[in-house]
Amino acid sequence: MGVTHSNHCAYDAHYHIVFPVKYRKALLEPTLTAAILEIAKEIEERYEITFEKIGTDGDHIHLL
């Protein structure tokens, strides 16, 4: 997206969000990870948002 300019400022916001699985159980299998990536692409197309990186481990998801 790049830097956004306003009247008196310029900004570039980045957010790091972590979604843990309930009770930190290792439930994120490769098929579920592929589905999460596909849903993220659909969200990017629908809304004005860009996911820089999406990472999964067995028990949590990272979005940047």
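[next item in queue]
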Amino acid sequence: MERGVYIMTKFNEVKEKNLERLELYVPVVARVHGGAHPEFHEVRRLFERIDEKIKEAGSGKPELDDEFKQLREITSNYTVPTGVCESYEAVYRMLAELDKAYHA
């Protein structure tokens, strides 16, 4: 299999697995933890932009390098803060997995 095709296949698999749950979890985590973790509001904004670009691209590969770069900076490479719920942790795990598949 050609490398570019493999990368898109992997990205599409991860996207299918995580995107719908991220759409549900991100707003809830922002509401619950946004006061104590204001950086999560920026995570939400970036995720919404990623989600929009993925949907606009359809089966093509969206340009997400800037968004993932900013997410890695804001989250210290998806380091989960102490004292947060499992949903917060799940959001970071799913975003990290999406980032890794995108850059594979």
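[queue empty]
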